[in-house]
Amino acid sequence: SRARRMVGVSLMLVVMANCLVALGQAMFGYSPLELSALESNGSTYVVGERMRLIGLQSSGQDLSAIVGAAFAWGLAQVGFHGFRAVPRYVTIAWLFAFATSILVLQRSILLGMTTSVLAVAAIHLLTATTATQRINRLGRLLLLLALGGTALAITGLLAPSQTSAAVSRALSLFDLTNDSSWSTRQSTTMPISTSLIGANPWGYGVGMTGSVAAQFGDLSPLSRHVYGGLWPDSGYFFVTLQVGLVGSLVWLAFLVAWAWRGSLIDPPVALRWNATAVIAFLAGSMLTGSFWGLASTMTLVLMLTSVDFGTRPSCELKESPAKADGRTD
Questions:
Q1: How far apart are CA 95 and CA 150, in angstroms?
Q2: pLDDT-derived band of residue 39, with 50, 70 and 90 as boundaries?
Q3: Where are the alpha helices (DSSP H) in the chain?
Q4: Helix axis angle, 131-158 relative to 2-28, nearest 10°?
């Protein structure tokens, strides 16, 4: 519909604006106003000798959630419709989102991007009816990722220091033995989170952890545990500490159902692909990041699941995934 497309165009503008500002930060650094905002928010923005990008957001975590979700959403859009049936500006926005997701220096997003690629690849394989379809679909996915790599290489020419730091940050995922942040998670954050959950498996209440709890000091029963309590460094611990084990199981069931069906009603197949890709992205990124607590950012992220820019007739989108996707192969 026209309203849905207007929402989608608005989201693409948000993604592009954040990517362009972030690229400027990668090339020229932060402005005094941006540095002041980061310091007032208490955001962690220094990684080694480089700084995390924030775009138009208040932290690198907010930016990475938006561009990472746009990356996953773009995979689903092109994967389902094909290159020719998706507007060019969607592909361009995806390329910017791909490069920015790497340059932001958030390893949580790299995990989310990986799970979204695996999810879209799995959909390709499971819904294909012939070997030729499988080859064509995976080839389309590999071509899209190759284009993303080209976009990253171009940004490497514009912002070589940030790109070099981003590549080193990504490679560090394969060897975390000497990583201080990972060591802190293993020795302090995760044990405290698990012990707190064991002490009160019913949860401590909504808002008792994360940025809301940090703003109100001693009002939270978890305020004595900065690492693992106020800041659990995992979306799963973040939710479980608040709503308990039973609540977190309900929440996980909700996410699985959303990723599987795409909606409570019978949605077009393309929207199911969107939901699967975006929820898979969140599932991976929340392993080491409390993204679920970013209320306004998560609103934008989850809105992407209902945006479709494909040009196929609506009757075709209601078919099964295997039939509906056969036309672009």
A1: 9
A2: low
A3: 2-28, 32-41, 60-81, 88-103, 107-127, 131-158, 160-171, 180-184, 190-199, 211-215, 235-261, 269-285, 295-303, 314-317, 321-324
A4: 40
Question: Tens of pLDDT along 96-129?
Answer: 999 999 988 888 888 999 999 999 888 888 887 8
User: What Cα–Cα distance (Å) separates residue 180 from each residue in 61, 115, 210, 248, 250?
Assistant: 19, 24, 21, 29, 34
Q: Determine how many CB atoms are found less than 10 A away from the CB of residue 115.
A: 19
What pTM does this model have?
Answer: 0.85
Q: Kind and range of the H or E element at 50?
A: strand 50-51
Whole-angstrom distance, CA of residue 96 vs CA of residue 70 = 10
Strands 46-47, 50-51: pairing kind: antiparallel
Q: Which residues contact 226 (CB under 8 A, 6 or more apart)?
A: none
